[in-house]
């Protein structure tokens, strides 16, 4: 027979269970699309789309307390590829940065030995993406290089730091939540530690501040719950340290900046969420829970829409969306009582709660950062519930009095208006589900083309872990040549609640969960590949007797029956069960009762031993039996019978071999029932004497007895394989018997009680696995020497509860941290390579591919101009690459959802929409930001171009009006008109909320800058006479009202303003300049003094587009300077100004960025939309960009793509074409012919 090996792929893996309390905050959902979660000292990597665990990282020795994925906010190419990088911090203060695909650690960082409080990757500058900021208790923040592990700087603060939050709009601002309040830092920089100690702000608890609750006037009706909360939080933030009784420290659970609008922050309390406007340090919104409501534990603010995901103590996730202020105006018109102006967050959707018990409680929620429409809930018992937000069109059935304005679905998809028959994905992301919140004074869009939507949570996935330890585990019988066709590597784990979990170790997924017993499972034994016996014992009564349950379970059907029938009540507990090698017989050993011998096939009791039978301490069946000789005898007898029945004449015609084959088949079916082979077992008694017993059919014979070995203590376990018998005792001695040579050899291990010993499966494999109370060892019994060892406290931090062999070279261990680990024989706990895994469902994650392959996949999805239709099959493309890599790319393509495939194959999808969609698919933050802004402004300027036939000079700078604007989360990049409305709306809210002179002064200043002079004068005149600024404010009010545009007064005011600025009163000087409409000068002064953000803000709200664009262009130049190094932000600013040619240059130019693919695609989009023309001046850039993109595609192996772009890159392109098609008889016609049509250039032929 030809020897062949079979590889049932069993990767080393960890099956995890319940979480530790310290793991509570250790979870993160990365831009790469995967969730990381700490489970004891391991880290699980899960794919939320298919609900699979795809990697477990093991290296930490203490519980993991924080995990953070690195951000994807950089341009991806071969030198900075798509990768899976994760930072994790544990309770001993160690931080590890992982390469998740290979499961290895990049670097390890240790500063102190206390638990890491918070971690964050810096994402805001183009220089380095390796910087990691960590909070080391009690009060240090340290900036590390996450690639090399070097410390860049360290800074200590006065109070204990609990967590921090970065301002998403300005990376130099961050807030620390400390045990006493909040510390605001305004000079954060990666190059040096913050110089100041920050501005300390104390939070008065919303409940314990009687001073702030105003007595309600007698006539007024009692305020409702929400209004009450509002009164309470009139003033919350003070700079003085409040009195002891007014403050309960640590009441604030969380603080974070709102990524949807600038300078807003939320504070989370158990019963309310406060929204603060940081310019005023004033509460402008409250989400309060009614008295009977369930308290909050966590909140995550969204960026795409002003919405909050809230997690409640019962595991319910709610989505609250900010109510539009225009709707509030309408409400105020109908009911003046409702006119309390504030930000209101309406409950729009909620998911089901979970059943909370002592051991089961919700820990944390994470949301998908790319699309913000999926949430995952981590439960303490190891479950992960994956919820997805779905939008249903149709009118709502809410009562009109609830004040909920309807939500509408946007009329655009991926940043472009929907084509008439264009496919779209309704639930792609939050901003493609609900349209923008309207602000006051904004006309709602015509309702004809908008559909009302309802939001609902749908449970789309569930990952569950192992239950609480202890476990009893047993691997199914090993793989043999006979069972290879239907073998499944199943592991049965009996649990403390009486259920048995069966896992398939190829995939690591739960195969079946069977509720078998009513008490803790003590042991399992398989009786075939699809059935097993398990026993459980109840807790003893006062006589020391228990109820024994011994169940026979059939896996395919799930049928269980009590194997011992009615027996089992009120008897001594079962100690162990042992099944013979041929699975014919079963021995049941009791504590203080003689053993029972059963026939498994018939389920009958063969013998219950006599009372005088010795007490058994260890027992094992012999691997030798007489089945083969019995079968031979039986075959001989049958053949003789057959020969007698067949006559001689027939004998000659029918070959005897055919007869024997027939008999063979017949006998095989009968032998299993009819033959009872002889089997033996050995056991030891309390004195260490070894007994030998033979069982055949229903006869039981006593055999030889071997006297005890003097060197051994009480024997605890026996293992027997081939000619080797091994005994282990309670003192840690192992005794190896060679039965053939009749030799015995004792080895003291000095490790205490030998709990279990098991031989590895496989012919001639004499490896032995030994379990002690403090660990395990693998021995080679041929050489009688130890192969590997693990010990609690030395190289692992968990105790072992049970052991078994999983294959001939891998072991499986159950441990007290609730995990079951499959390890190599060396027993080093190791992570595995993700690309070597056998997953049940393919996972979409381009970061898993090789860098080159990931970029090829991206190029393939972005543009396929070489054919009239889009294909999802990479084999149809001229792509020279190894078959394995092609296969991996195709696997990624296949794992896309059908919705996504149909949209990508839709010929109506424009290039811009495709770029946006692919950047979402790849979770590429940098690409997504760029294409969102680019597609918006390209369409805007293209529309304006069609509308206006004005002179060439003015067209670039004028911003056209638009129906749908860029979301306010883009801040300064929004259109001026929308930005102004938003700022006015905000000042209006601040004005309503002001509660002190400080606030009033800030509001008046802001109104003056916005040009709202009348309202500002009213506020200035409110100053009371006993206020020291009374005189000053009154004069200011007079000044504002009397300013005329006459020359002399203007020049005087300008002179005063410049003097003020020169003497350090920048803000006051800028105000005066704004009064006389010299805002452009004001912006210049602000820029000179380094107030770049303020200058940009002022330019947006006060200047005409032409003047404003000068200010913003200067800002863009400043952002490009080496010391600031935020070129990617500068590009976005230039996009918002319509400087498309400059953007193309910057993307492509050598000294700058070299973003070849982005540059070529952007220029192509500009040409298509008509905002850039191919003429002599622009041809040089266009050809250079296309040529570099062609070279890039050639280096990736996409020849047709390279040929297409090269054909449009002038003379240099022709040269590249020749290189591409050398020896193939010149350039194929198709490349030059059809593709020009497909790309649809609106330019003349000079381009080519």
TrEMBL record:
InterPro entries: Beta-prop_WDR11_1st, Beta-prop_WDR11_2nd, Quinoprotein_ADH-like_sf, TPR_WDR11, WD40/YVTN_repeat-like_dom_sf, WD40_repeat_dom_sf, WD40_rpt, WDR11
Keywords recorded for this protein, A-Z: Cell projection, Cytoplasm, Cytoplasmic vesicle, Cytoskeleton, Golgi apparatus, Nucleus, Phosphoprotein, Repeat, WD repeat
Main location: cytoplasm
GO cellular component, one term: axoneme
Keyword Methyltransferase attributed: no
GO biological process: animal organ development; cilium assembly
Residues covered by the WDR11 TPR domain: 980-1169
Domain WDR11 second beta-propeller residues, every copy: 488-827
Chain ranges of the WDR11 first beta-propeller domain: 22-318
UniProt keyword annotation of Magnesium present: no
Entry's localization field: Cytoplasm, Cytoskeleton, Cilium axoneme; Cytoplasm, Cytoskeleton, Cilium basal body; Cytoplasmic vesicle; Golgi apparatus, trans-Golgi network
Protein's recorded name: WD repeat-containing protein 11
Protein species of origin: Poecilia formosa
